[in-house]
């Protein structure tokens, strides 16, 4: 499997070794929201959000695939995206299974993988490293997975960081499609779903995704459904209640695959002349609206 490695891999290995013990422990580089802070309204309503949203679709990626052109799949996230917990991350993680699906579906296209995930990191660190670790690979489709490592952090910290990530992609690579992938862990997130609500980090990420027309698939909700219904146990799907087993990664992949199957015929997205007005004004200074 052809993979892109982040710049300065020795430095990143050091970062990952320091953070691996903190993977899936939240909040990460953020504090809880201050008392009295009100949540922003969501187009989807409050509080159990749809498991998938089309956004502007994935038409640019699938058009290139149908034409047999080269396509780079970018993966940007934490340890779940690296494949921690899998017996063979380069073959059985959701990332590897997704890349393999694209190659099987489009054998005439040259498909490569840009794995820019680092365990233990959330969107705050992601926003600071995207220009160095992901943009140089020029991905045609980026799957973003930070919901678990952002779990428990405050709304504005997450919203601001995720908006910086998405505005960077929309500015630097305007033709690139974006698919948000929402995973889960037992800590806090299970109780949200049990109460019929979507976890905070997913809500905050989705608010930004909707604003910029990003597609999304909540794979974590199906993992919750399987465990809560008694069809499976944590031991079956995620023995440490965070990192999936091979079976858990396959469950995540199947949700992504089903979404991709439904969007194979999306029309190519026209390049926007301007970006939407930023949700956080300070992001306009770094990534101005043309």
Task: Give the topology.
Blueprint: E1 3-4, H1 9-19, E2 52-53, H2 59-66, E3 71-77, H3 79-82, H4 89-92, H5 94-105, E4 111-115, H6 123-133, E5 141-145, H7 155-172, E6 177-182, H8 186-194, H9 200-211, E7 215-218, H10 219-228, H11 234-237, H12 246-262, H13 281-286
Parallel strand pairs: 1-4, 3-4, 3-5, 5-6, 6-7
Antiparallel strand pairs: 2-7
Helix pairs in contact: 5-12, 6-7, 7-9, 10-12
Could you walk me through the main structural features you see in this protein, from its secondary elements to its overall organization?
With 290 residues, the protein is α/β, with parallel strands linked by helices. The chain has a single domain (43-265), classed as SGNH hydrolase (Rossmann fold, 3-Layer(aba) Sandwich), CATH 3.40.50.1110. It is 43% helix and 11% strand. It contains 13 helices and 7 strands. It has a 7-stranded mixed β-sheet, sandwiched between helices. Strand 5 (141-145), helix 7 (155-172) and strand 6 (177-182) form a beta-alpha-beta unit. The radius of gyration is 18 Å and the shape is globular. The model is unreliable at 1-5, 8-23 and 25-45 (pLDDT under 50).
| Helical amount | 40-55%
**Strand order of the biggest β-sheet:** 1-4-3-5-6-7-2
Q: Give the full name of the CATH homologous superfamily.
A: SGNH hydrolase
- Assigned CATH class: Alpha Beta
Q: What is the helix/strand order?
A: EHEHEHHHEHEHEHHEHHHH
Give me the number of helical elements: 13
Low-confidence stretches: 1-5, 8-23, 25-45
How much of the sequence is in beta strands? 5-15%
Instruction: Find the structural class using helix and strand composition.
Output: alpha/beta
What integer value in Å does the Rg equal? 18 Å
If you consult CATH, what is the topology? Rossmann fold
CATH architectural arrangement: 3-Layer(aba) Sandwich
N-to-C CA distance: 38 Å
């Amino acid at each position: 499997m052809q993979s892109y490695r982040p710049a300065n891999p020795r430095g990143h290995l050091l970062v990952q070794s320091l953070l691996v013990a903190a993977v899936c422990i939240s909040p990460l580089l953020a504090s809880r929201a201050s008392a009295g802070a009100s949540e922003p309204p969501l187009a989807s309503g409050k509080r159990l959000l749809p498991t998938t949203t089309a956004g502007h679709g994935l038409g640019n990626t699938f058009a290139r695939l149908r034409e047999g052109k080269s396509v780079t799949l970018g993966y940007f996230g934490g340890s779940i995206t690296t494949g921690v917990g899998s017996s063979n991350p380069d073959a059985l993680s959701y990332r590897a299974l997704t890349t393999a699906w694209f190659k099987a579906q489009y054998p005439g296209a040259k498909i490569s993988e840009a794995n820019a995930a680092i365990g233990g990191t959330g969107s705050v660190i992601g926003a600071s490293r995207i220009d160095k670790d992901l943009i140089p690979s020029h991905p045609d489709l980026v799957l973003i997975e930070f919901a678990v490592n952002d779990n428990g952090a405050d709304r504005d910290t997450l919203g601001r960081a995720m908006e910086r990530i998405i505005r960077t992609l929309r500015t630097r690579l305007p033709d690139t499609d974006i698919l948000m992938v929402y995973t889960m862990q037992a800590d806090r997130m299970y109780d949200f779903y049990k109460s019929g609500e979507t976890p905070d980090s997913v809500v905050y990420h989705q608010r930004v995704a909707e604003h910029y027309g990003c597609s999304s698939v909540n794979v974590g909700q199906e993992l919750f459904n399987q465990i809560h219904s008694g069809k499976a146990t944590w031991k079956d799907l995620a023995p440490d209640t965070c990192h999936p087993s091979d079976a858990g990664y396959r469950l995540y992949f199947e949700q992504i695959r089903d979404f991709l199957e439904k969007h194979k015929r999306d029309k190519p997205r026209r390049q926007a002349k301007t970006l939407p007005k930023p949700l956080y004004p300070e992001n306009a200074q770094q990534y101005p609206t043309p």
